[in-house]
Amino acid sequence: MSDRKFQMHDQKTGAAITIRVTPRAGRTAISGVLEDGTVKVRLAAAPVDGNANIELVKFLAEILEVSEEQIEIVSGKTGRNKLIAIVGVDTQMVQARILAKAGKF
User: pTM of the entire structure?
Assistant: First the structure.
């Protein structure tokens, strides 16, 4: 066996969801869920200086009842399609809270 050193790291656990945002909407709200499971979110903020991303994280933290620090935009920071990681929760909880807050589309 080699004397090579390595480090082990704890892995973050949680859920991941895909989001499609529509910025500059009249109000911030969930507007639907697509067939592939992507959640459609309308954001009142404009996509200028990261304001839409900031509002998205705050909105998701509120409806999922988690801290903003638990939410990370993994990909899509400059686009409409985003992959969001929510640390410390399971997918069933995320789905239930999104559907409860979504109401009728």
Answer: 0.85
